[in-house]
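ugh finaly. both done.
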Amino acid sequence: MKTLAILVLCGLAYVCISASTGASDSTVSKSDSPTDEGVFVKKDEADTLMRQKRAGTDPANLSIAQLEALREVCEANLACEHMMDTSGIIAAYTAYYGAIPY
């Protein structure tokens, strides 16, 4: 049984290897060959392929989870926590830690 499995795997490997070498002998034009193009693309071509980064989220549109994360950071600083209670989490976070990272 093991011998049969090994023979089947060897035959499959032979078919795969012969098919991949046979494809290089076929009538593939030089412009269609992927080895000529390379991995890198020009910047203007890459701009059309890649999605541009969005600007930061408006502080009024932050989710509950994002606000909670800001609150946890601000609670570690007593002055920030006091300002958070009086002025709000967004004002306190930006005053002590700078721009909101979301």
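ok and the 2nd:
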Amino acid sequence: MSSDTANLYTPPEQFGMVEPGLYRSDMLLPVHFPFIKQFGFKTVLMLSPELPPRVTVNLIEEADIKMVHLGMTTWKPTQPATWRPVSEELIKEGLELVLNAKTHPILIMCTSGIHETGTLVGCLRKLEGWNFSSIVTEYRSFAGTKARYVNEQFIELFDLDLVTLPMTLPAWFVLDQEHGSPLDR
């Protein structure tokens, strides 16, 4: 292996910055860790109900990152069947965690980086005051051909009053509340 190849970073396919100190991703694999370590994450928020691979859990623990597996704690089999792609509890608790500045820098992830993560980010954008068209455009830019109308519908109908804002909000959220969405400026 040449020295040029040894220094290359491999980001996860669905990796992206949501806001300063807040990032999104699909499932982390060992090849992604040299890239991920440079962000100094305090918290990884796992939204899928599936367990991450053991090697991923080990790497997160070795990096002294707190992993919060909300997908596991909020998952319930839907009986009777419901149209909702994710639970309101998952999104509510996820939003309250990502809006707590004490958890930053934080990485939101799910198995694909699209469905649960995209829905949570879409609901965050709604809370920030983005118009629905801009929320859907961002969701679809990550989802591509895997976009699900039901996720967009969930975002549109999500009740923001369920979310209790933490005492320590990130600066970007405070600015959004004071001055309106960056898309309105």
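summary for the 2nd one i guess: The chain has a mean pLDDT of 86.
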